[in-house]
Amino acid sequence: MTTFKHRKVQKKRKYGLYALLVGLIAAAILALSVFLLFHIQKIEVTGIEMLTQQEVSDWVKSDTMSGNSLYVLWKSKFRPDKLLPMMKSAEISMKNPWTIKVKIEEHKLLGGILYENEYAYFDEEGTVLKKQTESIPGIPLVEGLGVKKVVLNHKVKAENRKVFSYVIQVGKVVEKWELSPEKIVFNGTEATLHFGTIAVNIGDENFDDRVAQITPILEKLQGKSGTVHLENFTMQSTLISFRPTVEAEDGTVTEGEDQILDETGATDSGEQTGADSYNEDWEAEPQYDESVTYGDGTEIYDDETGSYEDGSGTYDDGSENYDGTGNYDDGSGMGY
Fold this sequence. Notes:
alpha+beta, 5 domains, eight-stranded mixed sheet, 6 helices, elongated
């Protein structure tokens, strides 16, 4: 009897060990399947302009276990990595077990400075977000700041913080009006924007009103070189002048005489319109009234002299007896 019970216990142990072994094998197969199936083979990145695909991929795979899509998804929810300097936000999702999607929102770069042979670009807070050896097209370089120190992910240290506050103001207005000057030069707090051969002095105040005038002015001045003076422009005093540069035969460049671009016009809302921002030919042309016809049905033009010309060299005195030939008929058959 004792022997039978002993054999029964051994049999149960044998089945238990067998079940444990099967369970371990199943778990190993499951783990291997998860490892192979959820191994990241592709990372799809959207929303980047300044960052590169490689920079984002390296950020996602920041540790040894980040090759697994389940782990990356879990980590992004509960233990997210520190964002890269250019990142404002990052959202990670799974497209399928082997593909991760990363949606990035970048900080906007407001301007750049050349410091110790490197280009450092900063955002609207003045924080340096990117440093590299080549300039970035479309982002203006700022000169005249007097930079003391530039450190990535820290605010620019300028000799005059007041001047730097003006840099931020001008940068925001330029971005608002979708302009792309090559550089912005500061002389104290006075700013000059450079667009190829045209410089635009916008002074140190009323930046929004002044920058709003630039687009139609640049269209008018294509092919020319010189300086547009907007530093005295206000909504009440709308005179704009242009001082061209003149190149002499010996190659020396001097400034010519000021040319008045014209006073701007405003809409009822106070906004400047492109058509009203300057005179089309810079000099006023006589305006004629082409909407009136007289006597003989021909169009006549008012040259503001009090006379009306019908094109035949004769004039209509406004009477109903004008026959269009230069003579007047009183109805009696005899001309005057």
